[in-house]
Amino acid sequence: MMRRIPSLLTLPALALLAGCSASSVSRPNLTLPRQFAAPPEAHAAGAEALDRWWLLFSDAQLASLEDEALAHAPDARSALAVLDEARATRSKALLAYDVQGNASGSITRGQTTISGLGGAGAFLMAPAGATTTSAGSFSPSWELDLFGRRDAARQAADADLTAATFTYHAALQSLTAQVASNLFQARGLSLQLTEARDTLRVARELADIGQRKAKAGIGSQVDADSLLADRATAQANVVQLEAQLSVSRQTLLVLIGRAGAAPATLAVDGALGAAPDVPDATPATLLLRRPDVMQAEARLRSAMGTLRLDSLALLPKFTLQGTTSISAIAGPAGYTTSLWSLAAGVAMPVFDRARLLGERRAQRARAEQAAIAYEKAVQSGFGEAQNQLATYGADRARLALLTEAEARAHHAFDGQNAGYRAGVVDLTALLTAERTWRNARTSLSALRATTLSDAVNVFKALGGGWTPLDPNHPVTSFPDQKP
Asked: Signal peptide span per the entry (predicted)?
């Protein structure tokens, strides 16, 4: 059974499509799986915890790194600059519908000289001498918005700004997730390095025992060489993990805005805490928080506003035009003139009509693409949340099983090691027990880091990492329209 989610998020964009004709833009198909079709709770308990989900880990270093990244990371500063550009672009788009016009002025200085003129003609000429001519004019114009062009432009500009705002939030959301994932990865490598060094210590002890037994004639040289090979392998594993940890630290430093610092300046231990529970709120509610879904919805509103604006471009434009000018001449025969006028104008597209119709058809296609992109964003968002929740649940169950397996493997190795030292257990049994324990320990350490990263992915998939707007107070208002 399939149901449609009654999401508050879908109402604004669908309101734009409600008044459109069947030949205009299709309604997005928001059919979703039944498990995600629960009615959303506007203020679900626990949803606010997703705003700063990293605090749920009760990890002081993680919280500090997240704050540092949000304040200094290049990604955060770049996203803010893009948002500032969008704000300026919105203001510029709306100013085009205010009163337009420029003032101009000029000053001209000249010299008049009269020669070779006598008789009555001399009385008809202006007196000779220096003259200064000052002139100024102001010609404002204003379009009478009889058809709602300004409203359509505001709708598109507001939607573009809203989309840019959610792009900004998405950048911060991605940044915080990367910081946490890289920190947990670094800690996992640190823990594996500690365990690898412990393995190397044991391998060295066993290699020494094997050499002594071979020299004493109570052990074979083949067994001793096998233990030496294990020691070399353990040493190589330590070198590899040290390099990986250094790279992971440097990556984390770049993310938080400290790219120039040496990796050793970032302290990373192998402390991997327990993964937190997901806040108690319905997935439908939490997915209303996803910036990518809200961004797609805003882009649909922008496309619909632009389509409406392109349709209105086919209608005539009525303008009021005023002109004021003044000119003053200072000199022997100075005088001042002034002029003002007020006119009404109308402009109707004639030869441009075919081009405007083509642009409207292209914009309708772009609006259709935006509707499909919105549909895909919603469905992909729910699909991602479903997959991440399933992965997180499975890995937490595996973590409990591997914890038990590692403990039993460790106990078995301790017993075989004691028996080998006492000479009652052969080398093959010891190495088998040691490799079983080592593999179980490596798998457990990797899974602990992976489970923490899974939690990060779940919080990101559910829209955590930013403070959403109140769904009862949308960013902008937009009426129904018929493009």
From this structure: 1-18
Q: Which domain, by its residues, includes 241? A: 49-99+133-461
**Dihedral (CA of 40, 43, 49, 51) sign:** positive
Angle, CA of 268, 274 and 278, to the nearest 5°: 120
How far apart are alpha carbons 210 and 218 in whole angstroms?
9
Position 126 in a domain: no
Q: Looking at residue 311, which CATH number applies to its domain?
A: 1.20.1600.10
For residue 149, which of 368, 299, 347, 366 has the smallest C-alpha distance? 347
Per the document, the length of the chain is: 483
Nearest to 1 by CA among 29, 38, 35: 35
For 131, phi then psi, to 5°, come to -130, 145
Q: Is residue 145 part of a domain?
A: yes
Residue 38: inside a domain: no
Structure-token match 């990244």, residue found: 69
Q: What is the pLDDT along the chain (483 residues), one digit of tens a residue?
A: 233 333 434 444 444 444 444 347 777 766 665 655 555 444 444 566 788 899 989 899 999 999 998 888 888 888 888 888 888 888 887 777 778 878 888 888 877 666 655 555 554 555 666 778 888 888 888 888 788 888 888 888 888 888 888 888 888 888 999 999 999 999 999 988 988 898 898 889 888 888 888 888 877 888 888 889 989 999 999 999 999 999 999 999 998 888 888 888 888 887 888 888 887 666 666 667 888 888 898 999 999 989 998 988 888 888 888 888 888 787 666 778 888 888 888 888 888 889 999 999 999 999 999 999 998 888 888 888 888 888 999 999 999 999 999 999 999 989 998 888 888 888 778 878 888 888 898 888 889 989 999 999 999 888 888 876 544 333 333 333 333
Distances in whole angstroms, Cα of residue 459 to Cα of each of 42, 48, 357, 452, 454: 18, 12, 46, 11, 9
Closest to 76 (Cα-Cα) out of 158, 179, 161, 160: 179
**Of 19, 476, 436, nearest in space to 199 by CA:** 436
Query: How many Å apart are CA 111 and CA 157, to the nearest integer?
Result: 55
